[in-house]
Amino acid sequence: MRLAGQTILFLVLAFLIGPFILICVAGLSGGETLAFPPEGLSLRWVARVFEVESFRATFAVSITLGIGATLLALLIGVPAAYGLERYNPPGANVIRNVLSSPIIVPGIIVGLALLRHLVIPLGVGILPALFIGHTALLIPYAVRIVSGSLVNLRVDIEEAAVLLGASRLQSFTKVVLPNIRNGIMAAFIIGFITSFNQVPVSLFLTGPGVSTLPIDMMAYMEFNYDPSIAALSGLLALMSLVIVLVAEKLLGLSRYV
Amino acid sequence: MSDAFLSLQDLTLGYGGSVAVEALNLDLDRGELVALLGPSGCGKTTTMRAIAGLMKPMSGRITLDGRDITRVAPNKRGIGLVFQSYALFPHLTVFENVAFGLRLQGVAKDEIARRVTAALASVGLASFAERQPKALSGGQQQRVALARSIVVEPKLLLLDEPLSNLDARLRLEMRSELSRLQKELGITMIYVTHDQSEALALADRIVVMRQGRIEQIDTPANIYERPVSGFVAEFIGFENTFALKQGALVSGKGSLPVAGAPDAHGLAWRPRTVVLGQGAHEGRVIGASYLGETVEYLIDSAAGPIKAETPAHAPRHAMGENLRFDLPVEAAAVLSRA
Amino acid sequence: MFQDRRLGLALLAPATLFILLGFLLPVAILLSGAFQTPEGWGFSSFTEFFAKPLHREVFWRTFRLGLYVTAISAVIGYAVALSIVDASDKRKGQLVATLVLPLMISPVARTYAWVVILGKTGIVNQFLTGTGILDTPARILFSETAIFIGLIQLFFPLMVLPLISALENLPRDVVPAARMLGANWLQVFWKVILPLTREGLVVGGTLVFVGSLTAYVTPAILGGSKVLMLETLLYQRVSVANDFAAAGVIAVILIVMSIVTNVVLKRLATRKGGK
């Protein structure tokens, strides 16, 4: 029984990870076309990735979007989480549902809705609309993760701070924030990665000079069969893994997922 | 305006729609240590939090040292609070925890160092300044919490069941510490507890509370020996409490006439004042427990079970034994109300 | 100290308004558009949509694949979760990490690998033609099978993680108790483990089913324009034909399926004296 279980486990892990390792190796191919096993190993396709203009441009967009949207989501999400956890205001349940709603709506609908009802009629630019869409997508994560940290932080230390002379704001910045700092950073990392890898929301919100990297990759692979996408996939995965592993080491990221 | 140092006037407190404390009136003198004593839910913690400013009263007034603080924010009242869970700041060292209030006041660096070191020394933790709260034992955390509150020299110090999370031996130690510190510094203190022995040991006066009202305010000795109501009597250890009707003790089960009973609402006896082996009443032993120094008996009587306690060396009574017993009126607490 | 509920509302205001105005409002308008016809409110957009055989085919395909992916994930998911829960603490952490890490990698990267594996010159075909099982390479890419494989790889971890959590929360000795009363392993699973981990199964099932229904990247890369799923159909209708009516209908279908799945599966978890 145990052996059967172990075998299944092994096969499943191979299924999950194998293809991925394969694509990394394919990216290191020396040949002209995408193939596995690759004809020889070389870093030329990895280098080529950095030369493709659209990759560089969309990478910049994705990074800016990721950092910006996550920061905004945290800026308005942290007070929201605090308000919900500590004050239990009237209508808290409705508000909780509203703040979680972006998770239920398929991203492609969001992108289309923003295009049709924000960009076109109101003249809001594509990039701002993309920014709004991504921020909205990240707010549930920010609120959920920070709420988790707040729930574990006892209320009486805030009361203690106030009785020692702190104003509400001082109590928040000097006592609450330092103790939820790790939760906020975890939310930042998870938010950034979610935004960076996001495709459906960004699908309709592309325009001249504005596109995200994953979408650009999908466009590229429609007409090009060289290993650059494989190389780029490998690089992106490496980036994600490094971020996550560093975060795990420094923050114990796994506690917040 | 009252002359008292702290005055609560017709204070009514509640949550949502329901009232937890009703029209409370209480005056404290400067330098007193007053205990708020009662079972959970009696309103003692609610009252304490209202005094601290952590809760807004529904109606009533609070004055401290001549100033009406009813509407004043909690961080501006000059009142300290030692929490039941200590509430030390986990991200700061012991030194920084104690220095917290002083830093907010903008006190000069060397003055902070001087006062914090002195405060830590007064609670016996002089060498603990650089430790982290999570590395401290419960008793040590308690003392840091105390040092943190007293270093800012509050006018009034509130303590919310500060010793309830400590083991018995430590509790006794800390109790004497607290008493010593209070007398040394002369700080006015309100001590909230459900433990009558703590209240008796520490307080200048005890306020017994029940369901949002004050049952009795008096010195420990008077509370202990002359409880005014059945509730206080039972709370303070008079385990045989009865209402009195026409010279007889009455309970749900039946009645027991008592010779020479005064005209009062009720009578109460401590177990060790019940006399076994002789007397006007008859009963049967339905319980006997050896407790080391004493033996505890449960006697079934016409008015229900009576708890008695005799020294271990006294003659023993067996289970099921029929015996005579007495409830001497001179040894009873006379209850003037229910 | 937290009695001033209006301050609480003020703290919530920015985030709530942002989502209401910048997110829910545009989406609501889009969805309502699907119910607007020249004569006022009605379902004619829906009837027109489903009149086309292609659309019906795409709808059923999406629904079917969603069910298959969820069912297979559930079965294999339990097997994997049971093995992981048995492992030592250190191993368990490593195994869970191996499941979670792929979730952090771009779906584009994860799906693209299958192009290499399943393509005409991919390793599967190399194996099949090389060993003589097939004469000409099989067309696996751009098929339902390819999408199915891609979706399972993408969403499988989302089934296993809640199951692991549910299994770890099983009351301590129920399995040995059942064994002592004579149950064999199949009975233990069916009568004890499954009912008690029902909530985990529901969470995992919802994530996988809804995820599969609303997937874009995987059907786009592995199905192309030949094998469409609801979201790739939506994209095609809008970008190629400006068919916003169809887009609105598909949007409504996707959201309704998402909400219905959440509600129905939640009921399934809590009925019959569940938690």
Question: What does this entry show, briefly?
Answer:
The complex is a heterotrimer of chains A (257), B (338) and C (275). Chain A is mainly α.
CATH topology of chain C: MetI-like fold
Oligomer: heterotrimer
The value of Rg of chain C in angstroms is 23 Å
CATH homologous superfamily (4th level) name of chain C: MetI-like
Helix content of chain B: 10-25%
The CATH superfamily name of the largest domain in chain B is P-loop containing nucleotide triphosphate hydrolases
Provide key terms for this protein:
heterotrimer, B: 338 residues, alpha+beta, Rossmann fold, OB fold (Dihydrolipoamide Acetyltransferase, E2P), 2 domains, six-stranded mixed β-sheet, five-stranded antiparallel β-sheet, elongated, C: 275 residues, mainly alpha, MetI-like fold, two-stranded antiparallel sheet, 2 strands, globular
Structural features, described:
The complex is a heterotrimer of chains A (257), B (338) and C (275). Chain A has 257 residues and is mostly helical. Chain A has eleven helices and no strands. Chain A is globular. The two termini of chain A are 31 Å apart. Chain B has 338 residues and is of the alpha+beta class. Chain B has two domains: 6-230, 3-Layer(aba) Sandwich (Rossmann fold); 242-335, Beta Barrel (OB fold (Dihydrolipoamide Acetyltransferase, E2P)), CATH 2.40.50. Helix content of chain B is 25%, strand content 35%. Chain B is built from eight helices and 19 strands. The mean pLDDT of chain B is 91. Chain C has one domain: MetI-like (MetI-like fold, Orthogonal Bundle), CATH 1.10.3720.10. Chain C has 13 helices and two strands; from the N terminus they run H-E-E-H-H-H-H-H-H-H-H-H-H-H-H. Chain C has helices spanning 5-33, 44-51, 53-86, 89-100, 107-118, 123-130, 144-168, 174-180, 185-196, 198-213, 217-223, 230-241, 244-270; strands at residues 36-37, 40-41. In chain C, a hairpin with a 2-residue loop joins strand 1 (36-37) and strand 2 (40-41). The longest helix of chain C has 34 residues, at 53-86. Chains in contact: A-B, A-C, B-C. Chains A and C meet through helix 1, helix 3, helix 4, helix 5 and helix 6 of A and helix 1, helix 3, helix 4, helix 5 and helix 7 of C.
